[in-house]
Structures are given as structure tokens and as C-alpha cells.
Amino acid sequence: MSDAAPGLPPAMPATGPAAAPRPVGPLLAGFVLDWAVAMVLLVVVSAGVATAWMVARTLAGVAPTGELDPMGQLLAAMAGVLVPALALYFWRRRADAGECLRSRQAAARPRTWLLSLLVGAGCFGFATGFSALASALGLEPVPSNLSVVEAGWQRWPVFLVLFAVLLAPAYEELLFRRVLFGRFLAGGRPWLGLLLSSLAFALVHEPPGLTANGLAGMLQLWLVYGVLGAAFAWVYWRTGTLWAALAAHALNNALALGSFLAGAA
């Protein structure tokens, strides 16, 4: 099957001309190592930031409650993914001069941003429509980060917007698309990478065992996050620049946040 689509050039990986498929075993081993390192760093860094925030609040005279407040949760979540993303990028998947050049060339094409715009808006439309359908069937799971978003908007609206629309898309695209998906893209196995990186994306957003949702609700959220992750990976693959995936992700988050705030008003 051809990767070409009407009005679009053939898919061009950010790593250069399409490579011959490499053996799956070494690619899976690399993915498992990347994922294991990411998860260990996520847990350690998140716990460290959470502890440091609680100590700082106590020293500032805020009576300890034993629970991490929303700002602490936002900072822990941000650092917990940012540090693994940067560590794995520089250690395992750092871009060379050729990749950077191809990314700049792709970013200079107007069709790159048109595709990014369409996918970002389409992701928001899919998530909204799917949630409405599930709600009509009696399924209304609550995303694990909803309470943090609500509290963040009430107390730190500027930081919340910055976090949701710019910071989170940036470090999530670096980790899930550039590092995890990019390994398979460079190895000539993009579809396998799209599947695995999207699964990882879903699990991080709705960790099993750490959610109050039942099995049906958790599966619904995993499906939505997985489709979004796959769409962003496809944009990266199609355009050849991570900036396009980041822009699609940012647009989806901006629309989702705007929809949430409109509903809460």
C-alpha cells in the first residue's frame, strides 16, 4: 500500500529516506530499554519533586496536609516526563545535523502546517465525539488529571495554560514521538512503532492501578489517548518534522482546555 495521499508527498521520515526494515528483535529491545529507563526516571523524579515541593511549602509556613497540592502535582508531572525525555534524547536518540536540516526544510513547507492543523482539530473532534457517544451509553470516566486542571485554573490560570498548551506537548512529543516512535521509524518499522509508542502514551496518561475509573472507563480513556498518540506519530512520520506533531498536540490541548473552561463557566 502506498503512503501517498491526495495533495501530499510520500511520507518522509525525519531520519531521512525510508530505510530497509531492520530485524524486529533489536528494535523491541531498544524500545524496552528506553521505556524502562523512562519509567524509572519518571517515578524517581516525580517523587523527588513532590517531596521537595511539600518541604518548601512547609518551610514557607503552609501547614502540611499530607497530600500534594495541585501545583505540586503539575510540577511533579512536568518534571517526571521532561527529565526522561531529555535524558533519553541526548543519551539514546540525539538528532544529527542531517535530521535537523530535514526538519527545518519540512517546517518551511506550508502543507506541513496545514496537515498539523487538520490533525490537531481532528483529534479534538474525535475525542469529543467519542466521549459523547460513550456518555450516551452510560460511560463517563473521569480523566485522572481533571481535578488538577480544575484546581490549576482556579489558582494558577496562566501557568495551567502554559503547561497544557506548550510545555506538556513539547516534552511528550520529544519522548513518545521522537525517542520511542523515532527508533522504529529509523528502523523501517513505523507501524509497529506507532502502535507501541501510542500504547505507552495512553498508559502514562491513565496509569493502571492509579485511577478511580472502572475497567470500561479506563479502556475508553486508553483508546482515546492511544488514537491521539497514533495521530501525532503519523504527523511526525508524514511531515518529517517533530514541530508539526508538537503543533497538532498543542492545538488539540488548547481546544480541549477551551472546551473544558467553556463548560465550567
From TrEMBL:
One of its GO terms (molecular function) is endopeptidase activity. Residues 155-255 form the CAAX prenyl protease 2/Lysostaphin resistance protein A-like domain. InterPro entries: CAAX_protease, Rce1/LyrA-like_dom. The chain crosses the membrane at residues 32-54, 74-91, 112-136, 156-176, 188-205, 217-237, 244-264. Keywords: Hydrolase, Membrane, Metalloprotease, Protease, Transmembrane, Transmembrane helix. One of its GO terms (biological process) is CAAX-box protein maturation. This is CPBP family intramembrane metalloprotease. It comes from Pseudoxanthomonas taiwanensis.
